[in-house]
Amino acid sequence: MIRWIDVLKFAKYSNPEPPRRLELPEAAWQEQLSPAQFQVLRQKATEPPYRNAYCRSYEPGVYTCAGCGTVLFDSATKYHAISGWPSFTQPAAKNVIRYAFDSSYHMERIEALCNVCGGHLGHVFPDGPEPSGLRYCLNSESLLRLSLG
User: Fold this and answer.
1) Using one digit for the tens of pLDDT, what is the confidence trace for 100-138?
2) DSSP labels for the chain?
3) Cβ 146 vs Cβ 69: under 8 Å
4) Residue limits of the MsrB domain (predicted)?
5) Which phi and psi (to 5°) does residue 36 adopt?
6) Catalytic amino acids?
């Protein structure tokens, strides 16, 4: 289980080695992604709260990176955080998320990125439910939900 202290250590010292790497030129990303996905994943935009695909969606399945297809989260770890964006307590595996310090907009946060393609997903905060206490607050545009079964 990943805890806040682990997130801070990853961001400060070294993230886990990803399961694979995918690097494309920006022109290829722009061709592959929708305009909204490109803005979020590649330009680090934030979609409007509450008006996104997965904010109020709780169907069973897994959530993958919209850029590279890496499985990032399981729906079993999704919860209603009243933040306006889909929220999760734990990633699907320790090495699928990359963490980075983000001081944009005069805030100190930890950015969550896909560890495979480097796409911006959202941020992680230490105010989630126990036992991990984490809240991965993500943009729906950065995710695709795949149904299981």
Assistant:
1) 999 888 889 999 999 999 999 999 999 999 999 999 999
2) ---HHHHHHHHHT-PPPPSS-----HHHHHHHS-HHHHHHHTT---PPTT-STTTT---SSEEEETTT--EEEEGGGEE--SSSS-EESS-SSTTSEEEEEE-GGG--EEEEEETTT--EEEEEES-S-TTT--EEEE-GGGEEEE---
3) no
4) 26-148
5) -65, -40
6) 137
Task: Evaluate whether 102 touches 112 at the Cβ level (below 8 Å).
Answer: no
Instruction: Report how far residue 79's alpha carbon sits from residue 55's, in angstroms, rounded to the nearest whole number.
Output: 9
User: What residues have CB less than 8 Å from 28, skipping those under 6 apart?
Assistant: none
Residues 71-98: tens digit of each pLDDT: 999 999 999 998 999 999 999 999 999 9
Residue ranges of domains in the chain, CATH in brackets: 4-14+21-146 (2.170.150.20)
**Separation between Cα atoms, residue 146 and residue 144, nearest integer Å:** 6
Share the mean pLDDT of the chain: 95
